[in-house]
Structure formats: C-alpha cells, structure tokens
Amino acid sequence: MSRDHVQSAERSAHGAGEAGEAGEAGEAGEAGEAGVSPRDAGDAAAPAPAAVETPFLDLLARGASADAYEQPVLLARAEGGPAERIAALEQAKNLALRVRSELEGRRRREAELSALFETAHDLAGLRDLDAVLRAIVQRARSLLGTDVAYLSLNDPARGDTCMRVTEGSVAARFQQLRLGMGEGLGGLVAQTARPYVTDDYFKDARFQHTRTIDAGVRDEGLVAILGVPLTLGHHVIGVLFAADRRARVFEREQIALLGSFAALAAAAIDTANLLAETRSALAGLERANEIIRDRSGVIERASDVHDRLAELVLRGGGVHDVAAAVSQVLAGTVEFTEAAAAPARALETSRAEGHAVRHEDDWIAAVTAGDELLGALVLRGHPGLDPVDQLTLERAAMVTSLLLLARRSAAEAEQRVRGELLDDLLDARDRDPRVLGDRARRLRADLDATHVVLAARLDATASDADQEADARRRLWAAASHLAATRHGLAAARDGGTVMLLPLAAGDGATDLARRTAQQLSTAVHEAVTVGASAPVEDLAAHPDSVAAAYGEARRCLDALRLLGRSGDGAAAEDFGFLGLLLAGDQDVSGFVERTIGQVAAYDERRGTELLRTLDAYFACGMSPARTKDSLHVHVNTVAQRLERVGRLLGDDWQSPDRALEIQLALRLHRLSVPARH
C-alpha cells in the first residue's frame, strides 16, 4: 500500500467522524445502510497477500537458508516501506519459516523411518553380522549428524565390554578400548541398562573416569557422548554410541532414534546366534540322527516363519497377515488383540521381560514400541511350546510392532497431505484448478460438490503450554479422522482446526455444525465449539471462496463463544440480524424473508397494508394512538392490524430483540422495493 493511500484512508476516516458529529443519528443511519464498516476500510487498505508472500514462496522453492528469509523485510525497511507492508512481510516470513521447519522435520522423519526399514530389510536377509552392525552404526552416525558412532559388545568371560564396530574414528587406542562394568559412560550404560548422555564428558562427574578410558576418549577428541544399551529381554549385551568432538545437547527424539537402532542391532545379534545354533545342530547330523528328527521340524518352522515374516514386511502386509502366517507355522491359532483385551498380568510380565509368557493354556507376547504398549499376540490352546517356537512368537510380535508403526506413520502422512491441500485452498489462491482437483481426487475428495467450511476450537483452558498443545493435537487428530471418513479435508489453524466437509442432500450448515461439535467433543472428551459458513460450491475453480467462507465460520465461532454457547455449533443464519454481520455473502433477502416474509405475503394476497402499519407503529414509538393519526385511520383499525401481525409473526414480536430485527427487516425491505420495479 502506498503512503498516499494511507493518508487518503486517514482523511476519509477523519471526515466520517466529523460527519457523524454533525449529522448524529441521521447520517449514521445512512452509513449503516451503505454497508461500509471501519473494518472494511482497513481490509481494503491491507497489502495484497500475494505481494508479500511471493518472495518467501520463492525462497521455499529454492530451499534457501533460514537467514535468507530476513532479506525481504530488511529490503522493505531500507526502501522506507509503509509499516503495514513491513508487518505483513514479518507475518509472511514467520509463516514461511514455520513451513520450512515443518518440511525439514518431515524430511528428517522420512529419512529416519527409511533407515529403520532398510535396517529391518537387512535383518530379513542376514548373512554377515559384522556387515549389519556396520550398517547400523553408519546410519546412526548419518541420521544423528555426529562425528563418530560406535558399538561395543559385552564379554561375559572377562566381565567387561569391548569395541566391536566404529565409524568416523581416527584413533587406534580408542578403537581397541575395553571398558569394565561401571567404568566411563559406556560401562555405566552396560551396567545399568539405561541410556546416558553428556554434553561434556570430561566435566561430567557422574562417570567413573579411568586413565585408560580418558586417554582413548582424549585421543579421539570426543566431548559430547550418547550411549544406549543393546538388550535382549532384560539382559544387556552391549552399547551403541553417538559422539561429537564439540559440546552438544542431544534431543529426546535423537535418543529415541538411537534406541531404535540399538534394538535392531540386538535383534541382529540374536538372529546370528540362532543361526549359529542351527548350523551347529546340522553339523551333528552324522552323530545324532534322533536329535536331527527332533530338531528338524523346529528348524524348518523357524526358517519358514523367517521367510514369511520377511516377505510380509517387504510387501506391506498387515498385523492379521502376520498372525495367520505364524498360526500356520506353529500349528495353532494366533490372534492379535488390543492391550485391554489381553490378560493384564501376563501382558505386563511379557512387556517387562521381553519374552512370550504362558497364561493357562495360552501364550502371550507383548507388542511394544519403546515404552508404548500397542497390543499382544496370543497363541491359543498350546500349553507346550518349544523354545524356538516361543522365539518365533516373540519375533512375530516385533514384526507386528513395526507394521503398526508403519501404518500409523502412513495415516499421519495422509492427514498431513489432506491438511496441505486445505492450506492451499485457503492461502494459495492462484493454484491451477486442475491440479487442485487431481490432488483432491487422489484423497477421495470431490471439490465439485457443495461444501461447508467449519472452524472448531476447544473451550477449556489448559494449565500449561504442553497440555494446551496436546489438547490441540487431539482435536486435530479427531477432526482429521472425521474429515477422512466424510471425504473432506482438515488442517490445524489459528489455535484450532478448520474443516471442509461435503454437504449431504437435505442437510443444512447448522445441522452439520452441531453434529460436528458433538462428534468432536465426544472424541476429545472436552467441549468443542464449531462455527459454520454458508454452503460453497465449485471450490477448485474458485479457491478464494474457501478463504471467505473460513472467515465467516470464524466469526460464527467467535459469536457463539461471546454468547456463552460453548460446545455448540451454528451458522450465520442462526443469529437473526446478527447473521448479516457474520455472513460472508450478506444474505439480505434471506434475512428479510425469514423475519417479515409472512406479513409481506399476506399483504400481496389480501391487498392489506400490514407492512405500512408496522412501519408507522415503530416510527410512532409503538403508540397505537399516534399510529392512527399518522395513517389517518381509526384506532380500532390499528389494533386489528397489529393483532393480525401478531398471529403471523408470533406473540413475542414486540419483544426488544424481535422488534429490533423486524425494524431492520422493514428498512431493508423498503430499500429493496425500488429495485423491484
């Protein structure tokens, strides 16, 4: 916006104020009839969104660094741009930086998940333990972005732990270190079976420093170290490390990621040991024919389930496919159940020990992901279970947890894609309609159908920021699930959630808003208020209508909260004459019809003058005596006409709220009469 435009707007506002003082109620009424508000004038002076967003969209497209996003703002300030434009640029910059951060986080999460699945794939075709361990260490170093990553294994014979694999190490003494139990950070992890992290190893007094260990760490130049245990059940078999040659604080997600790699490394070691046992059994075929007969069936089943589970992982099978495959191998019935449906004590024991446990005639194997309990695999009616078959059931539980996590990640990805499409409809109004339509069809959404935009927000106030963020995530998850089941879209916005839902035949915006408020409140166990727009059509060709409808929905939401109707849902048409201020399309004729339509229709059918009598009645201060003088009729005639009006409009038509609506409708009707002729 230019400086001349700003000054012109200020002069107009000043002139309007003076006119208001001079003309008082008469000129104020004319301003109200013209339909122009101060807010409208402010909106007209605001910078065009595309003008301020374009440089930041270009930076996003080029993958520019975070520092580059300051340049458009600095340039505008250097050119002496107006404050409104600089404020708009600041807002667009912050939004673009959030989008950039989200994209970087998504790429990082995709890389982490890809690395985990690649490592799981390596386990499926395990032949060389050292090669798999090297791959785990390399990927851990790459994803955490550390200078060094290494892995040590416990030596039960000597009672210590020694280096097995290193990546990025340059010091020979460090690569040959042996740590006694409790010595150094790694010895403490191996002893306590808990992860430890330090941002400055030599200044950290929690660890038992020894001359040998400190010399090796000093040769390598390490400062910040993170170590997580390699566990089989409740036994620690080694430690996986990530370290930097500078001070660094490892985040919670990085610690969890390294723990996932440690779990895969432990599984690789366990699988290698099992294969070694199998080879040892095969080597004794010539000396123990009876052992061969006893063990051959078990070995075949283990190999069979190994191949089947590997195939399931590779082709994206589900948890019930895993249960069916293990059922065939174990010659029993294996079922996946939710945690609440499994025996609580046996499930907790399996979770704590990391093994399948017997419960009466069944076997229970907990399906976990870190500390989260996802369910259980239950082998029915099979009290006698070979140890290898027991291990097969435990492996199936591990594969089931990976598949559940993959399915969850896929669902979250689809929710994000739906949110991105709705964000584009709200913000990027210059998108190609064909591209928007194709994206919507891939998500099973029809932009050609009639839709309603809904703004939803939680009414409860959280005690702290973490609880509030968690509540908003639960609302977004519930809204995303509801939108997906209704072939609609949902996105988090303005501290709440915006939804775009198709309107079914015979349904109204008000009904949809109330139903959605009830469904979301039930899902999140808190009151959710929902404001709805009027129905909108042909969204792909006119994406700007989505933004306008969202503004209307938000105004309805704010009105509901101001009126104390928290947990309810409504559209602009529910607020009477206030709906004219809330609605984006200013449905004047609809308001007039709803308010005095029956009286107007009666006049047209009977040739009466009820509307004229109403107009005079309100103009005379609701006095029948003065009204009859104004109309030059008998007072009984006025009374009879007003009685007829009461029968048409209802007994409460003279209450303050109804009277105000009727007067506004009469004035709007009077303004619209010349346009009809």
Describe the protein's topology.
Layout: H1 3-34, H2 38-45, H3 49-62, H4 71-78, H5 83-124, H6 129-144, E1 148-155, E2 160-167, H7 172-175, E3 178-180, H8 184-192, E4 196-198, H9 211-220, E5 224-232, E6 235-244, H10 252-283, H11 289-315, H12 319-330, E7 333-337, H13 344-353, E8 357-359, E9 362-369, E10 372-380, H14 387-427, H15 433-442, E11 451-458, H16 465-485, E12 489-493, E13 496-502, H17 509-524, E14 528-532, H18 544-562, E15 569-571, H19 578-582, H20 588-606, H21 610-619, H22 624-631, H23 635-649, H24 656-676
Parallel strand pairs: 14-15
Antiparallel strand pairs: 1-2, 1-6, 2-3, 4-5, 5-6, 7-10, 8-9, 9-10, 11-13, 11-14, 12-13
Helix pairs in contact: 1-2, 3-5, 4-5, 5-6, 5-10, 6-10, 11-12, 11-14, 12-14, 16-17, 20-24, 21-22, 22-23
How would you briefly describe this protein structure?
The protein has about 675 residues and is α+β, with helices and mostly antiparallel strands. The protein is about 60% helix and about 15% strand.
Number of beta strands: 15
Portion in strands: 5-15%
Overall form: elongated
User: What is the number of helical segments per DSSP (H or I, 4+ residues)?
Assistant: 24
Biggest sheet features: 6 strands, antiparallel
Side-by-side strand order of the widest sheet: 3-2-1-6-5-4
What Rg is obtained from the alpha carbons, in whole angstroms?
A: 36 Å
Category from helices, strands and their pairing = alpha+beta
What's the N-to-C terminus distance? Answer: 41 Å
Unreliable spans: 1-46
Binned, the helix content reads 55-70%
The pLDDT mean sits at: 77
